[in-house]
Write a structure and sequence with these properties.
The structure holds two protein chains of two kinds. Chain A is an alpha/beta fold. Chain A is built from eight helices and eleven strands. Chain A folds into two domains: 118 residues, Response regulator (Rossmann fold), CATH 3.40.50.2300; 91 residues, Orthogonal Bundle (Arc Repressor Mutant, subunit A), CATH 1.10.10. By secondary structure, chain B is α+β, with helices and mostly antiparallel strands. The relative contact order of chain B is 0.07. Classes of the chains: A alpha/beta, B alpha+beta.
Chain lengths: 220, 438
């Protein structure tokens, strides 16, 4: 899952990035309102963590602008200021969730996952395709209860494909959604990862679509 | 009140009417005496005074105790000389009763007598007329007043009560509206009454409510900013530690610890500034003043920084009486600010300011801190003293400080009876702290 963190507290943002990446997220950072807005409109994210007090353009305005432009990415807003008015205003402006600083890190992660689940119409952290089960919270994959150890990146690629089950997903799409902004490599890396996932799963759930990309479907 | 006034005036009125009636009677009787006197003078006084122009009252002309002439129809049992004859040429008047005169009835009578000279010795002409009519008139007047006055008073009272009540109703409405406005409400009093004085009052009250609201808003803003400045470093430290603890094997602990330390120092600085502000806001009473040599105190603070960019100069030794902790904080805040912005030079100058204050003997001393960094724009010279203002938002909080330093320094100056301003400067930034010296 790809997440954008917009906060002018540099050390906080860096720590969040470290933590979220360890949880399997792909994280981009922005430290000002205008930068945050740019990133959010240039790329597609599964969720955005947005601080309110930002230099250049405050969080409310960034959020309002994104909504005006029709960007429906779930937004979780953060603030260190006092008051219920901040929370109400954040939610009314279009944010989906709100946390006061200092917040509990584990709560932040759980809420992010919940936000993403909700927008995808999912009810639990478990995804299933035939005999394959993924738990996006624990980052574990099982095939008929056999544990399949995937690397963080492999899991992310597979998860993305499973979320878009029955759709043809291009390599470009996978690259954009699983690798962060800093990555400048070739689409070839996607092939490598898909190949590894297939090998480890030993079940035929990922289909190659000539000229299009990949598709996950229930095995026949 | 009104009743008393009315009662008194009606009493006077009755008396006046009464005495006026008496005067009238006297005048008439006197005229009659004139007529009789005329007759006596010409020696043609008849024994019975035929109606010869003597129209009212009764007349008896008496010499000694003998009745010399009398009005027709006056019974012989009637004697008008109920008092002694006056001296010649003198006229006397009395009020007497019917009984005293020997007349039937219960009326009062007015008797006027004048002694006139005649051929047969002094003659006293006594005239009398009944006071029945005047008395009756007065009685009627008294009665109507006795009945009418209380009614009048009651009516007046009721009317006044109504009128005043109505006049005061808008005032009471205003009072109720003021009462209804709670602490930080946005409600204001309506100003469209018919009574313009009340309108003015409402406008004045609204002005006061505006000032209270503005003060409330400033306070709330300050609290929000202060809360943000405290919670941000806490949130950073917490997240860094939580993430570290969640993945302890992958964490670079020394780096993490160092970064948490930075946040702790931020918190420490912030807490210090807020406490100083709380102390300063305590006002003059909270100060513990002592005398210091200004130059020595400032130089000691400058030395702490060991920054080669700072130079200090003193015009001549001056003493100040200040709260040491607060004064030192003000100086440090100014120096911190200067060091953050200066390129190569910071000048600290202390100079005396001559003041033409006649007999106070208190001069002023300036502590000027000048740095050669970015000049401050003219319209920002005052803004920089507002709490939590940082002119360049782009600067991170670490370098910029929390934004309270200058506002605290100014409050410290003010509470010592001085002032802190940023002077216009095209080549840098100049801050002037002015204090009274001893």
């Amino acid at each position: 899952m790809r997440v954008l963190v917009v906060d002018d507290e540099v050390r906080l943002a860096a720590a969040l990035q470290r933590g979220l990446e360890a949880e399997g997220f792909t994280v981009d950072l922005a430290h000002t309102g205008p930068d945050g807005l740019w990133y959010a409109t240039e790329h597609v994210y599964d969720a955005i963590v947005l601080d309110i007090m930002l230099p250049g353009m405050n969080g409310y305005r960034v959020c309002a602008e994104l909504r005006t432009r029709g960007i429906t990415t779930p937004i979780l807003m953060l603030t260190a200021k006092d008051g219920e008015f901040d929370e109400a205003e954040a939610l009314d402006t279009g944010a989906d969730d709100f946390l006061s600083k200092p917040f509990s890190y584990v709560v932040l992660v759980a809420r992010l996952r919940a936000l993403v689940r909700r927008t995808r119409g999912q009810v639990s952290n478990e995804l299933a395709i035939g005999p394959v089960r993924l738990n996006i919270a624990s980052r574990r994959v099982t095939v008929d209860d056999r544990d399949v150890p995937l690397t963080s990146r492999e899991f992310a690629v597979f998860e993305y494909l499973v979320r878009r089950a029955d759709e043809v997903v291009s390599k470009r799409d996978i690259l954009d959604n699983v690798w962060d902004e800093a990555f400048d490599g070739a689409e070839n890396v996607v092939e490598v990862h898909v190949h590894a996932v297939r090998r480890k799963l030993a079940v035929d759930v990922i289909e190659t679509v000539r000229g299009g990309g990949y598709r996950v479907r229930v095995p026949a | 009140m009104v009743a008393v006034v009315l009662a008194f005036s009606s009493f006077l009125l009755v008396r006046w009417v009464h005495s006026s009636q008496i005067d009238d009677a006297d005048r008439t009787l006197s005229d009659q005496i004139d007529l009789v006197q005329g007759l006596i003078k010409t020696g043609s006084l008849p024994t019975v005074l035929k109606p010869t122009g003597v129209t009212t009252g009764q007349v008896q002309v008496i010499s000694g105790t003998n009745v010399v002439a009398v009005s027709p129809g006056l019974a012989s049992s009637v004697r008008l000389d109920v008092f002694a004859a006056p001296a010649v040429g003198v006229q006397v008047a009395h009020t007497t009763t019917a009984d005293a005169l020997g007349v039937t009835g219960r009326d009062r009578y007015r008797v006027v007598a004048r002694t006139v000279p005649s051929g047969i010795g002094p003659l006293t002409v006594y005239t009398a007329s009944s006071l029945h009519a005047p008395d009756q008139a007065v009685r009627t007047l008294e009665l109507s007043l006795a009945i009418g006055l209380p009614i009048l008073v009651i009516l007046a009272a009721i009317t006044m009560w109504f009128v005043v009540g109505r006049a005061l109703r808008p005032v009471d409405e205003l009072r109720r509206e003021v009462d209804a406005i709670q602490g930080s409400s946005d409600r204001r009093l309506p100003t469209d009454r018919k009574a313009t004085e009340l309108d003015q009052l409402a406008v004045t009250l609204n002005g006061m409510l505006d000032r209270i609201s503005a003060a409330e808003a400033t306070r709330r803003q300050f609290l929000a900013d202060a809360s943000h400045e405290l919670r941000s470093p806490l949130a950073s430290a917490r997240t860094m530690l939580e993430v570290g603890l969640a993945y302890p094997d992958r964490t670079d602990w020394p780096t993490t610890a160092g970064e948490v330390m930075v946040e702790v120092e931020r918190l420490q600085a912030m807490a210090g500034e807020l406490l100083a502000l709380a102390r300063v806001e305590g006002g003059e009473r909270a100060l513990s003043r002592e005398q210091f040599d200004l130059g020595t105190l400032v130089a000691a603070e400058v030395q702490r920084y060991a920054d080669p960019r700072i130079s200090v100069s003193v015009d001549h030794p001056t003493s100040i009486e200040v709260d040491r902790v607060l004064f030192v904080r003000a100086v440090r805040n100014l120096l911190d600010n200067a060091r953050r912005h200066a390129r190569e030079h910071i000048e600290v100058r202390m100079s005396e300011v001559p003041v033409d204050a006649p007999d106070t003997g208190v001069g002023l001393v300036d502590v000027t801190v000048r740095n050669d960094g970015e000049p401050i724009a003219h319209d920002q010279l005052e803004r920089i003293f507002e709490p939590f203002t940082r002119l360049d938002d782009g600067r991170s909080r670490d370098e910029g400080g929390a934004g309270l330093g200058l506002s605290i320094a100014r409050r410290i100056a003010e509470v010592h009876g001085g002032a802190l301003v940023a002077l216009p400067d095209t080549a840098g930034a100049t801050f002037r702290l002015r204090l009274p010296h001893v």
